[in-house]
Amino acid sequence: MTDAPQATARQATAMHVRPAVPADFPALKPMLVDMGFVEDEVALEARFPSFCGDPLRPLLVAETDGGEVIGYALLHDYGPHLRSGQSHRTAKLEDLYTAPAWRRRGVARLLMRAVEDWARARPLRHVFWYANTHEAGPAYVRMGYRPDDAGQEGFLFFEIDFGNPADRLPHPQRGS
Fold first, then answer.
1. Class of the domain covering 3-127
2. Each residue of 27-57: pLDDT tens digit?
3. Which of 55, 71, 144, 171 lies 20 to 30 Å (CA to CA) from residue 131?
4. Which among 86, 81, 85, 96 is positioned nearest to 176, based on CA atoms?
5. How far apart are the C-alpha atoms of 142 and 128, rounded to whole Å?
6. Burial of 108 by CB count in 10 Å (0-12 exposed, 13-18 middle, 19+ buried)?
7. CB of 75 within 8 A of CB of 91?
8. How confident is the model over 124-154, as pLDDT tens digits?
9. What is the 8-class DSSP label of residue 12?
10. What is the spatial order of strands in the sheet that 126-132 belongs to?
11. What residue segments make up the domains of the chain, in order of their start?
């Protein structure tokens, strides 16, 4: 009986997204490590500040209004394309992570709205990402994103196209 009121209170907690700052590293480090592929934690800490405020590699932090960091998203804006300039400008969502205690409470949706707002403001034509078929892929599907085959077993390809649907070429035909 005592768990239900706490869950409701936590779900009702106000959350927002903001750009990361170097002081966020202690709160984000466990999330970054949990994402995997961290070869050197000292090097991770050393390079973290360079991602804070980088307009081509925005690092967004989800936090409660009380200041608890509960997730993050990392993007990589590839900049103008050599052949198409700005018209097919693309970014990759490299990471999206929600702290385990906050999963299924709207944090990922909040971060994805922030990703889409950031992309529209650039403006970008495409944001794409890959997600595993175990937990991440189904979570994106629940948020309303449609997957395509990633060409790699165990992964799905997702893409948001912000352009005119009449001008859309499917990903394999675009080249990249």
1. alpha beta
2. 999 999 999 999 999 999 999 999 999 999 9
3. 55
4. 81
5. 17
6. buried
7. yes
8. 999 999 999 999 999 999 999 999 988 899 9
9. T
10. 15-19, 59-64, 69-77, 90-98, 126-132, 155-161, 147-149
11. 3-127
